[in-house]
Write a structure and sequence with these properties.
Elements: H1 14-27, H2 31-43, H3 51-63, H4 67-79, H5 88-100, H6 104-116, H7 124-136, H8 140-152, H9 160-172, H10 176-188, H11 196-208, H12 212-224, H13 232-244, H14 248-260, H15 268-280
Helix pairs in contact: 1-2, 2-3, 3-4, 4-5, 4-6, 5-6, 6-7, 7-8, 8-9, 8-10, 9-10, 10-11, 11-12, 12-13, 13-14, 14-15
């Protein structure tokens, strides 16, 4: 097992003592302790933050059949975070290993990849089964993804009531995607009572938790004055946040505000640039229209 040296563990608080205990247990070969200590290293919790060392310890934990260690290492490799080189292929294998070893985070992440067809087959029934397993195992992020599938009818029979139950459960646990999905149901009044104000509040909650799609929904509500007071400046700010996350329609809507000078200074050239971005991000309505050929 990998030794952990050079860490600043000062003081005598309960947290310091716990970190010391985990370090000693990890050095002694306890895989679960390596996983727990790696979490502290990754967060800088009672130890000096060291993400590269955390990755090594997650790998040690994974080798010791601690599924959560496999999932956490997979996330680092998928994102290329903490000085760890991005490796999507290896991340997929780690998520599969994690799910096999009953680490529900791995099942959820594998489901996300199957839903997108990212590095694995685009398989919505497989994604829904993985989300269901994760949700049943208490991983509420899995519940949020499953709820979104029931809302859209992807890979499952569309069921708004079931969707609302799952999304509400995950939103109560502060899962941003759950709040976004629940807000969409509230706005439409499907599976749950329609309420614009509650929908806007849910979008804000998810947006504050950095769910860019929720920032986009909140921007629309704020621009239209639906459930919240109309405010073009705030709408522009949230369109900008969503645009920066490659949401093409958000870029196009922000461009429209620059054309009108609503909430921002009028800037036609900036609007043109944003529409080009929107087109690049796949929002076809923002792309230049080719003239029809005449016979």
């Amino acid at each position: 097992m990998l030794a952990v040296a050079g860490l600043a563990l000062s003081g005598c608080t309960k947290g310091n003592e716990e970190a010391k205990r985990l370090r000693a247990a990890c050095d002694g070969g306890t895989a679960a302790a390596c996983d727990s200590f790696a979490i502290k290293l990754q967060k800088g919790e009672y130890v000096l933050r060291d993400e590269a060392r955390a990755a090594l310890l997650y790998e040690a934990a994974c080798t010791g059949r601690v599924g959560d260690g496999c999932a956490r290492l997979g996330l680092m490799l998928q994102r290329g975070s903490g000085g760890v080189k991005r490796d999507s292929t290896r991340a997929i294998g780690l998520f599969e290993q994690a799910c096999t070893n009953a680490a529900m985070e791995g099942c959820t992440q594998l489901g996300v990849l199957h839903r997108r067809g990212a590095g694995v087959a685009h398989d919505l029934p497989r994604a829904s089964a993985l989300f269901q397993r994760a949700c049943d195992g208490g991983h509420l992020d899995g519940c949020s993804h499953l709820g979104m599938l029931y809302a859209s009818g992807e890979g499952v029979t569309q069921d708004f009531t079931r969707a609302a139950t799952l999304l509400n459960k995950s939103c109560d646990a502060k899962i941003a995607l759950g709040c976004l999905g629940l807000g969409q149901l509230r706005l439409a009044g499907t599976g749950i009572a329609q309420n614009d104000s509650i929908a806007a509040a849910l979008f804000k909650q998810a947006c504050d938790a950095r769910e860019s799609a929720a920032c986009f929904r909140l921007a629309i509500a704020t621009e239209e004055g639906r459930g919240v007071p109309q405010n073009f400046e705030r709408a522009a700010g949230n369109y900008r946040r969503a645009c920066e996350e490659r949401n093409g329609e958000a870029c196009a809507r922000l461009a429209a505000l620059y054309d009108k000078g609503a909430g921002v200074d009028r800037a036609p050239e900036r609007a043109k640039s944003l529409r080009r971005q929107a087109c690049e991000y796949g929002y076809a309505d923002a792309c230049p229209q080719r003239p029809e050929k005449t016979s």
